[in-house]
Amino acid sequence: MKPEFIDVPHAHSVAEVLQMLDTDAELGLSCHEAQKRLARHGPNHLRQIKPRSTLSILFHQVRGFIFWLLVAASAFAFSIGDTAEATAILIVLVLNVLIGVFTERRAARSMEALRHIADTHTRIRRDGHVFMADARDLVPGDIVIIEAGDVITADLRVIKATGLECDESVLTGESIAVAKSTEAVEIDSILGERIGMLFKGSAVTRGLAEAVVTGTGMQTEVGHISALVQAAEPESTPLESQLNRLGQKLVGLMIALCGVTVGAGYVRGYPVTELIQTGIALAVAAIPEGLPVVATLCLARGMWRMATHNALIRRLSSVETLGATTVILTDKTGTLTENRMSVTRYLLSGETQEVTAEGPLDTGQSPALLWALRIGALCNSADRGGPLQSEGTGDPMELALLDVAARANLDLAGYRVVAEHAFDPDHRMMAQIHEFEGRFLFSVKGAPEAVLARCTHVLSDSVTLPLDAAARHAWQNKSSAAAAEGLRCLALAMKSRDASNEHPYADLMLIAIVAFADPMRHEVPAAIAACKTAGIRVVMVTGDHAATALRIARDAGIDPGRAAMPDDLDLATLDPARVDPTTAQRLLQTNVFARVSPSGKLALATFLQKSGQIVAMTGDGVNDAPALRKADIGIAMGHRGTQVAREAAEMVLRDDSFATIVTAVREGRAIFDNIRKFVVYLMSCNLSEVLVVGIAVAAGLPAPLTPLQILFLNLVTDVFPAFALGLGPGDPDILKRPPRHAKESIMGRHQWRRVAWLGTLITVATLGAFGLALFWLALAPAQATTVAFLTLSLAQLWNVINAGDPRRGPVDSGAMRNPFVWGAITLCLGLVATALWVPVFSDVLELPSPGGAGLVLALGTSFLPLVAMPIAALRARAQNHVLQS
């Protein structure tokens, strides 16, 4: 019979399930058989929610207020017989919608591609070898190796378990961890009572286990639920919402201005038909058509840039928060260091055994060293694997212990595992029990102070000596001295008994303290320095010894402040809502926290947030998940982080490097800056169009622009330069500024002043050219309109340079360094030239040639805003300097 999914695996014994699936618990499936089953059952993933159809995206584009306002303008034009203008408005509408559809589809594909980067992996056994495999390749009958921090990637039947507990709230809604075992239960047991099952999507919070896959993909419990779930609406970020509100307010303001202008024209006796055309022109000028489109593209491209720098953003809203980060709480191991552990020495009773980097290890005549090597290899959940996984899987410190044991040619034949006690963050120890020659060996390793507290004896050569208070203190000094050199330490202990049911952490014999070296990442000191320049405080929060933490912090360039927190303040018991002023001051002045538990991380993050800080926090363990969720930006490790931590975080570091966090912060700031630049640019261009038409009509002049011409300008000189500003690389000195306030609006008082000033300059240049064309050059009104059109279009193109960084001059502005800006200007100049000199377009747009004098006038006056803005900025800076002095 071919192995198929089992309907009720919880009701069968382990042996029955293995037999039904035709698999071996010790060897697993063969790779050949696994491939056959994968072809038969398909990949292990939930049915993909059907992507939004083009029709759905199209509906999303046409349901907005702006779209229907333009439709109304087109209908007005049709009603007064202006077919060409009405048709042109509809064409522009279609083009704008197509641009929106294209951008939204690209953003959707980008998000989907980014999700694939975060595909999960699972440790499995096949052909007798343990290795990491893509979770999508799991098949019924695969043997899965599980430990605390893993996210279950298929439905599994437990076949071995030690202290196993799981969070099944994703299925049951119950947040309390559920204890698991190998026992079968009644066939009609509810989901929460199936103690022998692990379900896809649940998280392992404690313990170790081996389990066999019984269901994959849509045949899992969560797959059954997902089949009933409808596709949700795409995420809308606070930034996008802010832009939408901004656009609506602007449209309302501009329509009010349009009403005033049309009313003034009516009082001056303008014909109703001409007033309607003017109203249409003003309405079209007021609408920032490109705003939502450019914002979407800017966010999507920014996320891609972060992904190329190994920072995977899982939530769009995080992009906005990154730029406002004021504090980074960082772990030490693997983030500041390389997490490339190697054993450097064994601290034994009465001697120290140095370990070279490579080559055979001679144990000499030291029984203590031999036992230290044996305990390090036995009390170990890492696996060097077979040919499919040459680098092995597991904790780097445990892999280092396996390596040094292999170099000593240690013989572990005959030791049979009978029980495992997974690492417990509360006890800071782990244990394994092996049967050997009729007795049971308890091997223990963990934090030196935790293990020392449980030891009553110490092995010295071949003699067992009592471990009194003085001896225990001496061992603690040894450990502290090694930690002060930047080494990480683990204590090794053991006991031998006739029975295996004794408490693993009682009456132990200390064997040795083993010291590991973990080199600093070469890029970390520069990244820490960049944070200081950017006004971001870096705080190391680690579970390591205080001396180790201080040494690494100083090497990395972190000022410890008041040094590591003293023992009289336990962060785990800290109430962030009730911190006295003295304690608060100490917390705010300390940059190195050692021996911090996961609950302590959570309390510290909460306290800093209540102090007004925007907190980014790194984490990798299952117990870090609450703190990662609490932080404004939770940052999980991609390599060494658990799946639970990655699910809780907003950002995943694919290279586990602190420098990547700094790069992501820079990108977050650049994205916000770019959005602010193109909003200022679009608003100033739209304001100038409204003012040009409104002031001319109020002054009794002919309308300087037609609605069709304004539509052309909005499509050409608005959208393409705005796109270019949104794609800019950002200010190279962006990390030399302090973080922006988290509640700072895109359009603050300073930005509105720039919009008003830029819009006014463009208006003055355009109306000046229009007036000179009418009264100085004595051009016909239609030719003067061409001069106004050309002046306005060119002035708006040069305005993209003024929309750069206001702190810099035009030559050094971000826009000048942005190659997309030059591409947009070149493209727009070509389109404007086409509108003027290609008869088909010039006839439709009503742009007769203004002659050489008109062209020179338009070109010359269009540069006035580009020249006036820097002069005004220099004058303002000079005045501020005088006032300050």
Describe this structure in words.
This protein starts with 13 loop residues before the first helix and ends with a helix. The strands form three sheets. Strands 10, 11, 12, 13, 14, 15, 16, 17 and 18 form a nine-stranded mixed β-sheet that branches. Strands 1, 2, 3, 4, 5, 6 and 7 form a seven-stranded antiparallel β-sheet that branches. The chain is 48% helix and 16% strand. It is an alpha+beta fold. It folds into four domains: 1-231, Distorted Sandwich (Calcium-transporting ATPase, cytoplasmic transduction domain A), CATH 2.70.150.10; 239-305 and 664-884, Up-down Bundle (Calcium-transporting ATPase, transmembrane domain), CATH 1.20.1110; 311-337 and 521-656, Rossmann fold (3-Layer(aba) Sandwich), CATH 3.40.50; 342-517, 3-Layer(aba) Sandwich (Calcium-transporting ATPase, cytoplasmic domain N), CATH 3.40.1110. Helix 24 runs antiparallel to helix 25 (781-802). A hairpin with a 2-residue loop joins strand 10 (342-348) and strand 11 (351-354).
The number of distinct helices, counting runs of at least 4 residues, comes to 29
Mean pLDDT: 80
End-to-end distance, in Å? 91 Å
CATH topology of the largest domain: Calcium-transporting ATPase, transmembrane domain
CATH superfamily of the largest domain: Calcium-transporting ATPase, transmembrane domain
Which structural category fits the helices and strands? alpha+beta
Overall CATH architecture of the largest domain: Up-down Bundle
Q: How many distinct folded domains?
A: 4
Number of extended strands: 23
What tags apply to this protein structure?
nine-stranded mixed beta sheet; 29 helices; 4 domains; Rossmann fold; alpha+beta; 16% strand; Calcium-transporting ATPase, cytoplasmic transduction domain A; elongated; disordered C terminus; 885 residues
